[in-house]
Amino acid sequence: MTALALHDIGVRFGGLTALDGVTLTVPEGRTVGVIGPNGAGKTTLFNVVCGFVRPSAGHLTLGDRRFRPRPHQLTRLGIARTLQGVGLFPSLTVRENVQVANPATAEAALERCGITQHLNTRPMTLPYAVRKRVALARALASEPKLLLLDEPAGGLGPEEIAGLTALIKELTCGVLLVEHHMDLVMAVCDEILVLDFGKPIAHGTPDEIRADPKVADAYLGEE
Amino acid sequence: MDRFVYLTFDGLSRGAVFAAFALALVLIWRATRIVNFAQGAMAVATAYAGFSVSSATGSYWLGFAVAIVTGLALGAVTERVVMRFVDHSSHLNGVVVALGLVLVIQGGLGMIYGNEYRPAAAPFSRDAFTVGGVALLSRFDLFVFAAVGAVCVLLALLFTRTAVGLRMRAAAFAPDVARLLGVHVGGMLTLGWALAAGVGSLAGMLVLPTELGLHPNAMDVVFVSAFTAAVVGGLDSAPGSVAGGLVVGLIVSYVSGYLGATVAPIAVLVLLVVVLLGRPGGLFSRGKARTV
Question: What ipTM did this prediction achieve?
């Protein structure tokens, strides 16, 4: 069953086209990556799914039903998101940060992410990699059917990325991943959508994306 | 020395009221980054409602309960009907709307109840107990301490021990992130305003029976002292606002006692200026000062 589908989504900010004709499905239990150069529209895509940005064209479906996302209803719909900038509540402890999402499952989520030793610490005193884990634990605490990961490897070192890779591979929910770290994307994704200036230029398996010359021109060629 | 002891207890009693009122200001500031200049007028409005019920029924406590409940309702309505629609792109917008509310409420109270001072009854004697010839606290002072203490404990438990309190804190610090976690931020704001106005009403019911009496502008002076208390403690710090309230209460009492009551408001303003110049984030703030 398809968990989430975007149908021909377009977003315009004044004269700027942020997204144009984006169609994508994220089946339950599968990991779909969205890559592209800076400004390609990846985060805008997440903001459409979360209801922070209303699309000027197209629509979304969850299961068989069309839906208009609203941020505070996402967890009820089984969707959770991490943020690029971590987005933890600085005055709440690690435990409280995760409890905001779901007090009943907070401990289990923290244990799953391996950060139970920091329960009563305020997040801003922790290393960035640990804060990222707290943000992930908070998203997992809501027991999502679909998890949106916005650059989860940003600012992490190789060892931490290896740990993150293993953690994402263990997830049983659908995952929509926006990420610049190609090794992580290629390792965890079942399929990948490539955006350039808001338009899809390629869509396929990691091997197909690696072999696509358009992708190399637009994105991979930059590295 | 006897006078100093008396003034100290008197200051702590006043300070407890300032603390409650400052706490109300801090609750709204933390949730919305608005200094609710209408807090005093709202408290007076609910006190009028309470004392009207008391005089109609002869029951002080029924009037007291009506004042608190009216405060909760007025706070919720103010947020839901007025403040929610304020453009928050500038702090000034919220301040202007709050000041507008002051004028509307005070004007309305003047039209309904008139502008003359009315006595406000106290539920307990205000005559101080004397120990060894030294006047200490009255029964009413003890009631003030008990009421404010109970409110502080209940709010502390709410914010640290309950899921609703946790969600209120999350909604106050990062509303967009909180929304993503399923928090109904609008509902939390309404609840925050209701609680703040309820606490403000309590402060009004505790301070009006003293030297103030009922008048549409009766809480103006209290507002200045409570605002100073909130700034002294740090507008982001609930415990700081309580400590700030006690500090301001003591200063008001000592200055009134030794230099004269007319000097006390000046002393409060001097304290406000000194804190704003020297430590604008407040004495109990952890982070950098916010600019308003």
Answer: 0.84
